[in-house]
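Data deposition worksheet. Section B asks for the primary sequence of the deposited chain exactly as it was used as input, without tags or linkers unless they were present during the calculation. Section C holds the resulting structure in C-alpha cell form. Section D is free text for depositor observations; keep each observation to a single sentence. Incomplete worksheets are returned to the depositor.
Section A, Depositor: J.P.
Section B:
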Amino acid sequence: MKGLHVVTWILLVIGGLNWLLVGLKLGGIGEWLPSIANIIFILVGLSAIYELATHKKNCKLCGSQSAAPMA
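Section C:
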C-alpha cells in the first residue's frame, strides 16, 4: 500500500500545482498538455478520494497513535 500512497501523494501535488498555475493566471495542465489533461484530472480526483478515505490511518500526525494533541 505504500506505493499507492506515494502515487496518490504525487498526483495530489500535481493537482495543487495546477491550481497554483490557474490562480496565477498562467493557464494550467489543460492548456499545456491538452491531450492528456482529462486523464490527469481523473487520476488527481481519484487520488483525492483515496487520500480522504485512508489519510487518518496512514498519517502519523492524524492517526490514533499520535501522542501530541492537535491545537
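Section D:
Residues 2-56 form one domain.
The longest helix spans residues 2-23.
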